[in-house]
Amino acid sequence: MLHEIRSLVVHDEPTGARALAERLRSSFPGMVVVTTDEPSAYGHDFDVFLVDCRRLGVDVVRTLHAETPTALILAIVDGLDRAALKEVVNAGAGALVDESVPGDVEALDVRIRAFLSRRAEAPETRGLLGVMRSMADLVRMWNRRMDRQELS
Predict the structure, then answer these.
(1) Residue 43 CA to chain centroid, in angstroms?
(2) pLDDT tens-digit series, residues 84-130
(3) Where is 96: in which H helix or E strand?
(4) Of the candidates 93, 33, 82, 35, the residue with the CA atom closest to the CA atom of residue 60
(5) How far apart are CA 117 and CA 64, in angstroms?
(6) Which runs of consecutive H residues, i.e. helices, occur in 38-151?
(7) At what angle do helices 104-120 and 14-27 cross, to 10 degrees?
(8) Which fold has domain 6-151?
(9) What are the boundaries of each domain within the chain?
(10) C-beta separation of 52 from 27 below 8 A
(11) What is the CA radius of gyration of the chain?
């Protein structure tokens, strides 16, 4: 590992922020985890962002993605319609997490491990190939989410 992995949990509810931070710390020992309700207070020097879009909005995702395009941005969403989900993905979210859907929070670990694994690969496989893998993962996740909505 070239440097320590740093995560920022952007959440306006202290209880939710603490729960996500504890989950990250237990799943990824050694990961530096910072919680805040104001992302600009900490800058953008993070590898992973968890952003509560339910209350903080999509603009936070868009700003973080513009400032740190190589970071993994996980958007916490809840009860958004298809247009809103599409907006979050287009803003730069690498994955969507619905805390009310069983398994979504557990999937955080899988997404983060996959991201860290890709980052650790040889430099020649990170560039375009890494982007292509991320896009394929995102499309698969998006299709599963849409399938679940259609079944509801």
Answers:
(1) 17
(2) 788 888 888 988 888 777 777 778 888 899 888 887 775 544 456 66
(3) strand 95-97
(4) 93
(5) 22
(6) 53-56, 58-67, 82-91, 104-120, 128-151
(7) 50
(8) Rossmann fold (3.40.50)
(9) 6-151
(10) no
(11) 15
